[in-house]
Amino acid sequence: MSQLERIYHFHNWVLNKRYPNAITLADHFEVSRATAHRDITYLKERLLAPLDFDRARNGYYYSEEGFSLPFEKTPQIVFMLAMLHKMADEAGLDALPEVHILKEQLGRLLFSDHKRLVDSLHCEWIEVEPVKSEVLDVLLNAVLDRTLVRIGYVTPAGRSSTRTIEPLKLINYQGRWYVMAFCRMRQQVRIFHTARISHIQPSGENFDPPALDIDGLLNRSFGIFKGDGHAEARILFTGEAAAIVREQRWHASQKIEDTEEGIILTLPFSDFTELKMKILQFGARAKVLAPPDLKKAVAEEIRKMYFMAFGP
Protein backbone atom coordinates (compact mmCIF):
# COMPACT_ATOMS: atom_id res chain seq x y z
CA MET A 1 0.00 0.00 0.00
CA SER A 2 1.27 3.47 -0.83
CA GLN A 3 1.51 6.33 1.66
CA LEU A 4 -1.11 8.14 -0.41
CA GLU A 5 -3.62 5.33 0.10
CA ARG A 6 -2.92 5.09 3.83
CA ILE A 7 -3.42 8.85 4.27
CA TYR A 8 -6.61 8.72 2.21
CA HIS A 9 -8.12 6.03 4.46
CA PHE A 10 -6.94 7.71 7.66
CA HIS A 11 -8.54 10.96 6.52
CA ASN A 12 -11.87 9.19 5.89
CA TRP A 13 -11.76 7.56 9.30
CA VAL A 14 -11.30 10.98 10.87
CA LEU A 15 -14.16 12.45 8.80
CA ASN A 16 -16.41 9.60 9.94
CA LYS A 17 -15.49 10.36 13.57
CA ARG A 18 -13.91 6.98 14.18
CA TYR A 19 -11.03 8.64 16.09
CA PRO A 20 -8.19 6.61 14.55
CA ASN A 21 -4.63 6.65 15.84
CA ALA A 22 -1.22 5.32 14.78
CA ILE A 23 -2.04 1.84 16.07
CA THR A 24 -5.27 1.77 14.03
CA LEU A 25 -3.35 2.76 10.90
CA ALA A 26 -0.45 0.37 11.51
CA ASP A 27 -2.69 -2.63 12.19
CA HIS A 28 -4.99 -2.00 9.21
CA PHE A 29 -2.21 -1.69 6.65
CA GLU A 30 0.31 -3.99 8.40
CA VAL A 31 3.03 -1.35 8.62
CA SER A 32 5.22 -0.33 11.53
CA ARG A 33 4.00 2.19 14.07
CA ALA A 34 6.90 4.44 13.07
CA THR A 35 5.58 4.45 9.49
CA ALA A 36 2.06 5.18 10.75
CA HIS A 37 3.34 8.12 12.82
CA ARG A 38 5.17 9.49 9.77
CA ASP A 39 1.95 9.27 7.72
CA ILE A 40 -0.01 11.17 10.36
CA THR A 41 2.74 13.78 10.66
CA TYR A 42 2.72 14.19 6.87
CA LEU A 43 -1.06 14.65 6.90
CA LYS A 44 -0.84 17.30 9.61
CA GLU A 45 2.33 19.20 8.66
CA ARG A 46 2.59 18.84 4.90
CA LEU A 47 -1.09 18.66 3.96
CA LEU A 48 -2.07 21.13 6.72
CA ALA A 49 -4.83 18.95 8.13
CA PRO A 50 -6.38 20.46 11.31
CA LEU A 51 -5.67 17.29 13.29
CA ASP A 52 -6.05 17.27 17.06
CA PHE A 53 -5.77 14.36 19.45
CA ASP A 54 -8.63 13.48 21.78
CA ARG A 55 -7.06 11.79 24.80
CA ALA A 56 -10.39 10.60 26.14
CA ARG A 57 -11.14 8.76 22.86
CA ASN A 58 -7.48 7.97 22.21
CA GLY A 59 -7.72 9.13 18.59
CA TYR A 60 -7.57 11.99 16.15
CA TYR A 61 -10.32 14.35 15.02
CA TYR A 62 -10.53 17.48 12.87
CA SER A 63 -10.78 20.69 14.88
CA GLU A 64 -12.13 22.57 11.84
CA GLU A 65 -14.95 21.75 9.46
CA GLY A 66 -14.56 21.51 5.70
CA PHE A 67 -11.01 20.17 5.37
CA SER A 68 -10.39 18.07 2.26
CA LEU A 69 -7.34 16.43 0.75
CA PRO A 70 -5.86 17.89 -2.45
CA PHE A 71 -6.29 14.49 -4.14
CA GLU A 72 -9.83 13.68 -2.97
CA LYS A 73 -11.01 13.93 -6.58
CA THR A 74 -8.72 11.01 -7.34
CA PRO A 75 -11.21 9.19 -9.63
CA GLN A 76 -11.26 12.21 -11.95
CA ILE A 77 -7.47 12.58 -11.79
CA VAL A 78 -6.98 8.88 -12.40
CA PHE A 79 -9.41 9.04 -15.30
CA MET A 80 -7.45 11.85 -16.98
CA LEU A 81 -4.07 10.19 -16.42
CA ALA A 82 -5.39 6.85 -17.61
CA MET A 83 -6.81 8.52 -20.71
CA LEU A 84 -3.43 10.14 -21.39
CA HIS A 85 -1.70 6.78 -21.10
CA LYS A 86 -4.19 4.90 -23.24
CA MET A 87 -4.23 7.69 -25.82
CA ALA A 88 -0.43 7.62 -25.92
CA ASP A 89 -0.62 3.91 -26.73
CA GLU A 90 -3.16 4.55 -29.47
CA ALA A 91 -1.16 7.50 -30.85
CA GLY A 92 1.80 5.23 -31.58
CA LEU A 93 3.88 6.30 -28.57
CA ASP A 94 3.82 3.02 -26.63
CA ALA A 95 7.51 2.37 -27.35
CA LEU A 96 8.67 5.61 -25.73
CA PRO A 97 10.20 5.34 -22.22
CA GLU A 98 8.24 8.42 -21.12
CA VAL A 99 4.98 6.53 -21.61
CA HIS A 100 6.17 3.74 -19.33
CA ILE A 101 7.19 6.34 -16.72
CA LEU A 102 3.65 7.75 -16.89
CA LYS A 103 2.26 4.25 -16.37
CA GLU A 104 4.46 3.73 -13.29
CA GLN A 105 3.44 7.09 -11.82
CA LEU A 106 -0.20 6.26 -12.46
CA GLY A 107 0.26 2.97 -10.66
CA ARG A 108 1.65 4.73 -7.59
CA LEU A 109 -1.35 7.05 -7.54
CA LEU A 110 -3.99 4.32 -7.74
CA PHE A 111 -5.93 3.03 -4.81
CA SER A 112 -7.19 -0.53 -5.00
CA ASP A 113 -10.80 0.57 -5.59
CA HIS A 114 -9.73 2.91 -8.39
CA LYS A 115 -7.94 0.28 -10.47
CA ARG A 116 -11.34 -0.75 -11.82
CA LEU A 117 -11.65 2.71 -13.36
CA VAL A 118 -8.55 2.23 -15.48
CA ASP A 119 -9.67 -1.25 -16.51
CA SER A 120 -13.01 0.25 -17.56
CA LEU A 121 -11.41 2.53 -20.17
CA HIS A 122 -10.86 1.53 -23.77
CA CYS A 123 -9.43 3.73 -26.54
CA GLU A 124 -9.23 2.51 -30.11
CA TRP A 125 -8.05 4.39 -33.17
CA ILE A 126 -7.62 2.89 -36.61
CA GLU A 127 -4.78 3.37 -39.08
CA VAL A 128 -2.42 4.22 -36.22
CA GLU A 129 1.23 4.60 -37.18
CA PRO A 130 3.91 4.12 -34.49
CA VAL A 131 6.42 6.95 -34.44
CA LYS A 132 10.16 6.31 -34.27
CA SER A 133 11.38 7.41 -30.85
CA GLU A 134 14.58 8.91 -32.25
CA VAL A 135 12.59 11.04 -34.71
CA LEU A 136 10.17 12.27 -32.06
CA ASP A 137 12.98 13.03 -29.58
CA VAL A 138 14.85 15.20 -32.08
CA LEU A 139 11.71 17.02 -33.22
CA LEU A 140 10.48 17.59 -29.68
CA ASN A 141 13.78 19.12 -28.60
CA ALA A 142 13.96 21.18 -31.79
CA VAL A 143 10.46 22.61 -31.20
CA LEU A 144 11.29 23.48 -27.60
CA ASP A 145 14.77 24.90 -28.28
CA ARG A 146 14.01 26.47 -31.70
CA THR A 147 16.85 24.63 -33.42
CA LEU A 148 17.24 23.59 -37.04
CA VAL A 149 16.90 19.96 -38.08
CA ARG A 150 18.15 18.19 -41.20
CA ILE A 151 15.93 15.44 -42.50
CA GLY A 152 15.72 12.95 -45.31
CA TYR A 153 12.15 12.90 -46.61
CA VAL A 154 10.36 10.49 -48.95
CA THR A 155 7.12 11.56 -50.65
CA PRO A 156 4.22 9.12 -51.24
CA ALA A 157 5.40 8.91 -54.86
CA GLY A 158 8.83 7.72 -53.67
CA ARG A 159 10.83 10.88 -54.37
CA SER A 160 13.62 11.44 -51.82
CA SER A 161 15.11 14.74 -50.75
CA THR A 162 17.30 16.13 -48.02
CA ARG A 163 16.24 19.41 -46.50
CA THR A 164 16.71 21.69 -43.51
CA ILE A 165 13.60 22.58 -41.56
CA GLU A 166 12.61 24.87 -38.71
CA PRO A 167 10.22 22.75 -36.58
CA LEU A 168 7.34 24.86 -35.26
CA LYS A 169 4.68 22.45 -33.97
CA LEU A 170 4.13 18.73 -33.51
CA ILE A 171 0.73 17.49 -34.68
CA ASN A 172 -1.10 14.24 -34.01
CA TYR A 173 -3.90 13.83 -36.52
CA GLN A 174 -6.05 10.71 -36.66
CA GLY A 175 -3.32 8.52 -35.14
CA ARG A 176 -0.51 9.88 -37.34
CA TRP A 177 2.28 12.24 -36.33
CA TYR A 178 3.25 15.31 -38.35
CA VAL A 179 5.55 18.27 -37.85
CA MET A 180 4.70 21.73 -39.11
CA ALA A 181 7.94 23.42 -40.10
CA PHE A 182 9.40 26.14 -42.26
CA CYS A 183 11.20 24.36 -45.10
CA ARG A 184 14.30 26.27 -46.16
CA MET A 185 14.43 24.44 -49.47
CA ARG A 186 10.87 25.48 -50.45
CA GLN A 187 10.89 28.71 -48.43
CA GLN A 188 7.43 27.83 -47.18
CA VAL A 189 5.71 26.46 -44.10
CA ARG A 190 5.03 22.79 -44.79
CA ILE A 191 3.55 19.85 -42.88
CA PHE A 192 5.78 16.77 -42.92
CA HIS A 193 4.55 13.27 -42.13
CA THR A 194 7.02 11.87 -39.57
CA ALA A 195 6.61 8.31 -40.91
CA ARG A 196 8.21 9.53 -44.16
CA ILE A 197 11.30 10.93 -42.46
CA SER A 198 14.03 8.46 -43.45
CA HIS A 199 16.75 10.01 -41.30
CA ILE A 200 17.06 12.98 -38.98
CA GLN A 201 19.91 14.98 -37.53
CA PRO A 202 19.81 17.92 -35.10
CA SER A 203 22.04 20.82 -36.11
CA GLY A 204 22.23 22.69 -32.82
CA GLU A 205 21.76 25.94 -34.76
CA ASN A 206 19.02 28.19 -33.47
CA PHE A 207 16.44 29.93 -35.63
CA ASP A 208 13.95 32.74 -35.14
CA PRO A 209 10.42 31.49 -35.80
CA PRO A 210 8.59 33.26 -38.63
CA ALA A 211 6.03 35.90 -37.73
CA LEU A 212 3.10 33.68 -38.61
CA ASP A 213 -0.14 32.68 -36.92
CA ILE A 214 0.66 28.96 -36.83
CA ASP A 215 -2.57 27.98 -35.10
CA GLY A 216 -4.49 30.08 -37.59
CA LEU A 217 -2.86 28.20 -40.46
CA LEU A 218 -3.77 24.87 -38.90
CA ASN A 219 -7.35 25.84 -38.13
CA ARG A 220 -8.22 27.61 -41.36
CA SER A 221 -9.45 24.55 -43.23
CA PHE A 222 -10.59 20.94 -42.95
CA GLY A 223 -8.09 18.10 -42.64
CA ILE A 224 -4.33 17.82 -42.40
CA PHE A 225 -3.72 18.92 -46.01
CA LYS A 226 -3.82 22.71 -45.78
CA GLY A 227 -2.50 23.78 -49.18
CA ASP A 228 -2.22 27.37 -50.36
CA GLY A 229 -5.77 27.95 -51.56
CA HIS A 230 -8.96 28.30 -49.61
CA ALA A 231 -12.50 27.36 -50.63
CA GLU A 232 -15.85 26.47 -49.09
CA ALA A 233 -17.52 23.10 -49.55
CA ARG A 234 -21.27 22.50 -49.33
CA ILE A 235 -22.34 18.87 -48.96
CA LEU A 236 -25.84 17.47 -48.72
CA PHE A 237 -26.28 14.47 -46.42
CA THR A 238 -29.47 12.44 -46.42
CA GLY A 239 -30.96 9.57 -44.40
CA GLU A 240 -28.76 8.00 -41.73
CA ALA A 241 -25.77 10.00 -42.95
CA ALA A 242 -27.56 13.23 -42.02
CA ALA A 243 -28.18 11.94 -38.48
CA ILE A 244 -24.54 10.87 -38.12
CA VAL A 245 -22.94 14.04 -39.49
CA ARG A 246 -25.25 16.26 -37.45
CA GLU A 247 -23.54 14.98 -34.30
CA GLN A 248 -20.00 15.31 -35.66
CA ARG A 249 -17.58 18.20 -35.86
CA TRP A 250 -15.54 18.23 -39.05
CA HIS A 251 -14.25 21.76 -38.55
CA ALA A 252 -14.53 24.46 -35.89
CA SER A 253 -16.23 26.93 -38.27
CA GLN A 254 -18.60 24.46 -39.94
CA LYS A 255 -22.28 25.28 -40.42
CA ILE A 256 -25.21 22.87 -40.60
CA GLU A 257 -28.42 23.79 -42.40
CA ASP A 258 -31.59 21.71 -42.21
CA THR A 259 -33.39 20.91 -45.47
CA GLU A 260 -36.32 18.71 -46.48
CA GLU A 261 -33.86 16.10 -47.76
CA GLY A 262 -31.51 16.14 -44.77
CA ILE A 263 -28.75 18.57 -43.82
CA ILE A 264 -26.22 20.69 -45.71
CA LEU A 265 -22.75 20.85 -44.17
CA THR A 266 -20.65 23.89 -45.07
CA LEU A 267 -16.97 24.04 -44.17
CA PRO A 268 -13.67 25.50 -45.42
CA PHE A 269 -11.05 23.36 -47.15
CA SER A 270 -7.75 23.83 -48.97
CA ASP A 271 -7.16 20.42 -50.52
CA PHE A 272 -9.49 17.82 -52.07
CA THR A 273 -7.59 14.75 -50.92
CA GLU A 274 -8.98 14.04 -47.48
CA LEU A 275 -12.35 15.72 -47.91
CA LYS A 276 -13.04 13.62 -51.02
CA MET A 277 -12.37 10.40 -49.09
CA LYS A 278 -14.53 11.58 -46.22
CA ILE A 279 -17.46 12.30 -48.53
CA LEU A 280 -17.15 8.96 -50.32
CA GLN A 281 -17.47 6.99 -47.09
CA PHE A 282 -21.17 7.98 -47.00
CA GLY A 283 -21.81 6.65 -50.51
CA ALA A 284 -25.06 7.72 -52.13
CA ARG A 285 -26.16 9.50 -48.97
CA ALA A 286 -23.69 12.35 -49.64
CA LYS A 287 -23.88 14.81 -52.53
CA VAL A 288 -21.45 17.65 -53.23
CA LEU A 289 -23.30 20.87 -53.97
CA ALA A 290 -20.28 23.17 -54.27
CA PRO A 291 -17.72 23.98 -55.47
CA PRO A 292 -17.90 22.48 -59.00
CA ASP A 293 -14.29 21.25 -59.01
CA LEU A 294 -14.82 19.26 -55.79
CA LYS A 295 -18.02 17.82 -57.25
CA LYS A 296 -16.12 16.82 -60.38
CA ALA A 297 -13.29 15.27 -58.36
CA VAL A 298 -15.70 13.10 -56.35
CA ALA A 299 -17.53 12.02 -59.52
CA GLU A 300 -14.21 11.09 -61.16
CA GLU A 301 -13.21 9.03 -58.13
CA ILE A 302 -16.54 7.18 -58.28
CA ARG A 303 -15.96 6.49 -61.98
CA LYS A 304 -12.51 5.05 -61.23
CA MET A 305 -13.91 2.90 -58.44
CA TYR A 306 -16.57 1.52 -60.78
CA PHE A 307 -13.90 0.77 -63.39
CA MET A 308 -11.75 -1.04 -60.82
CA ALA A 309 -14.73 -3.11 -59.65
CA PHE A 310 -16.38 -3.95 -62.98
CA GLY A 311 -13.91 -3.06 -65.70
CA PRO A 312 -14.55 -1.00 -68.86
Compact description:
By secondary structure, this protein is α+β, with helices and mostly antiparallel strands. It folds into 4 domains: about 5-60, Arc Repressor Mutant, subunit A (Orthogonal Bundle), CATH 1.10.10; about 75-120, no CATH class; about 135-210, SH3 type barrels (Roll), CATH 2.30.30; about 230-310, 2-Layer Sandwich (Alpha-Beta Plaits), CATH 3.30.70. It has helices spanning about 5-15, 20-30, 35-45, 75-90, 95-110, 115-120, 135-145, 215-220, 240-245, 270-280, 290-310; strands at about 50-55, 60, 145-155, 160-175, 175-185, 190-195, 195-205, 230-240, 255-260, 260-270, 285-290.
Reading off the top of the CATH hierarchy, the class of the largest domain is best stated as: Mainly Beta
Radius of gyration: 28 Å
In terms of structural class, how would the helical and strand content be classed? alpha+beta
Q: Termini distance?
A: 70 Å
Strand order of the largest sheet: 6-5-4-3-7
Distinct helical segment count: 11
Task: Give the quaternary arrangement of the chains.
Answer: single chain
Shape: elongated
Order of helices and strands: HHHEEHHHHEEEEEHEHEEHEH
**What would you say the CATH architecture of the largest domain is?**
Roll
What does this structure look like?
The chain is an alpha+beta fold and 312 residues long. It folds into four domains: 3-62, Arc Repressor Mutant, subunit A; 74-119, no CATH class; 133-212, SH3 type barrels (Roll); 231-310, Alpha-Beta Plaits (2-Layer Sandwich). The chain is built from eleven helices and eleven strands. It has helices at residues 3-15, 22-29, 33-46, 74-90, 97-109, 115-119, 133-145, 214-219, 239-246, 272-280, 292-310; strands at residues 51-54, 59-62, 147-154, 160-173, 176-183, 188-193, 197-206, 231-238, 255-258, 262-269, 286-290. The strands form three sheets. It has a five-stranded antiparallel sheet with strand order 6-5-4-3-7. Strands 9-10-8-11 form a four-stranded antiparallel sheet. Strand 9 and strand 10 (262-269) form a beta hairpin. Helix 4 runs antiparallel to helix 5 and helix 10 (272-280) packs across helix 11. The protein is elongated and about 95 Å long. The mean pLDDT is 87.
